[in-house]
Amino acid sequence: MLNFNMTLENYFFVREVVKKHSADCTRYELWKKVRKHMSYQTFLTFLDYLFYCGLVMFDKNGDVSWVYDKDGEKEQLKGFRNAVKRN
């Protein structure tokens, strides 16, 4: 029986690996960096979740890129707050 290890700790581990190796590795190459921790199936589930949250994108070569910009989000929120205060 497979152990899927769907834990929050593993989610954050995958997230950090993707950030560190953004645009350098394919899905399989990234999984090689974490495979002692989880199955490939579980790893793909985490990648799918990151994609649907808008944190990563996949290019036509299969490379995984981290696209979430925390600072950009802060600027958008700052602009939103200023717009709300004016009205």
Protein model, in words:
With 87 residues, this protein is mostly helical. It has a single domain, classed as Orthogonal Bundle (Arc Repressor Mutant, subunit A). It is built from 4 helices and 2 strands, in the order H-H-H-E-E-H. It has helices spanning 8-20, 27-34, 40-52, 70-86; strands spanning 56-58, 64-66. It has a two-stranded antiparallel sheet with strand order 1-2. Helix 2 packs across helix 3. It is globular and about 30 Å long. 14% of the residues are buried.
Strand element count: 2
Q: And the CATH topology?
A: Arc Repressor Mutant, subunit A
Order of helices and strands: HHHEEH
Structurally, how many domains make up the residues?
1
Write the layout of secondary structure elements.
Elements: H1 8-20, H2 27-34, H3 40-52, E1 56-58, E2 64-66, H4 70-86
Antiparallel strand pairs: 1-2
Helix pairs in contact: 2-3
Features:
87 residues; mainly alpha; Arc Repressor Mutant, subunit A; two-stranded antiparallel sheet; 59% helix; globular; disordered C terminus
Task: Characterize this entry briefly.
Helices cover 59% and strands 7% of the residues. It is mostly helical and 87 residues long.
